[in-house]
């Protein structure tokens, strides 16, 4: 009986940035729970690969090439989902990122782009799906944040600010869209993705250092984020206006980057 509550059969989820890493992991678990997944990414081969894996496991999905910062692309994604499946029950705003840059070296353009990447993308997609969810009488929006919103990380000031803004957007939307739509955020720690591994490979010993600074002494598994997302999208979930910290217990920066003092 308890596990039946986690069955999402018949629901349709849009997952942005689902071509790889965290987004792909969440998309695959949602599909395992019964969702039809509309996955988006800017790189066609990546999003086709994710949806291909979902379909190979018996799931249903649709791969769309789109830039989540573009309202025109967002309108096309939501319109296609509604035309093809007739509903959108779940939105996972996973798109985000930043470039490394020490505080005094960040340009205005870099700062604005990081904010758009992490916050404006979620604003656009949420604004586009919300009318359909409100008409249906239910919906769940999950924003993917980061522990950097709680504490600063050297050389990632723009990213820290943007993720803090995403959590503020989560709270604002949760208040306005309740009771029909629930809005929550998941704040990540360090997860085992190809992107992170690439950075760690350039710094020998950095993986061990990151694990040492994490109370659970290991990296996270993206499937774990998918399981939490499934819970947040179940019809009887009582959570909204919340940020869930899935970070191995860190309470400060665990980055191994050797950024010197000024």
TrEMBL record:
It is found in: Secreted, Cell wall. GO terms for biological process: monocarboxylic acid metabolic process. It holds the Pfam family adh_short_C2. It comes from the Bacteria. Its main location: secreted. CDD domains: SDR_c (cd05233). Keywords: Cell wall, Oxidoreductase, Secreted. SUPFAM superfamilies: NAD(P)-binding Rossmann-fold domains (SSF51735). It catalyses: a (3R)-hydroxyacyl-[ACP] + NADP(+) = a 3-oxoacyl-[ACP] + NADPH + H(+). One of its GO terms (molecular function) is 3-oxoacyl-[acyl-carrier-protein] reductase (NADPH) activity. Belongs to the short-chain dehydrogenases/reductases (SDR) family. This is 3-oxoacyl-[acyl-carrier-protein] reductase MabA.
């Amino acid at each position: 009986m308890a596990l039946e509550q986690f069955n999402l059969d018949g629901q349709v989820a849009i997952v942005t940035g689902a071509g790889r890493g965290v987004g792909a992991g969440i998309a695959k678990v949602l599909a395992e729970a019964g969702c039809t997944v509309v996955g988006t990414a800017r790189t066609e081969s990546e999003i086709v690969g994710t949806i291909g894996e979902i379909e190979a496991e018996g799931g249903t999905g649709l791969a769309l090439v789109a830039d989540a910062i573009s309202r025109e692309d967002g309108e096309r994604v939501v319109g296609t989902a509604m035309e093809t499946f007739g509903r959108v029950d779940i939105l996972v705003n996973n798109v985000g990122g930043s470039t490394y840059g020490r505080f005094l070296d960040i340009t205005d353009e870099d700062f604005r782009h990081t904010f758009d990447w992490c916050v404006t993308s979620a604003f656009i997609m949420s604004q586009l799906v919300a009318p359909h969810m409100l008409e249906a009488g239910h919906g769940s929006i999950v924003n993917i944040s980061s522990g950097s919103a709680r504490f600063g990380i050297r050389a990632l000031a723009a990213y820290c600010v943007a993720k803090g803004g995403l959590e503020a957007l989560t709270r604002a939307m949760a208040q306005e869209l309740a009771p029909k739509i629930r809005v929550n955020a998941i704040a990540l720690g360090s997860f085992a993705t190809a992107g992170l591994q690439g950075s760690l490979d350039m710094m020998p010993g950095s993986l061990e250092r990151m694990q040492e600074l994490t109370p659970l002494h290991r990296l996270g598994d993206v499937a774990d984020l998918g399981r939490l997302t499934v819970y947040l999208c179940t019809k009887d979930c009582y959570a909204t206006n919340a940020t869930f910290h899935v970070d191995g217990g860190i309470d400060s920066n665990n980055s191994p980057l050797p950024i010197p003092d000024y």
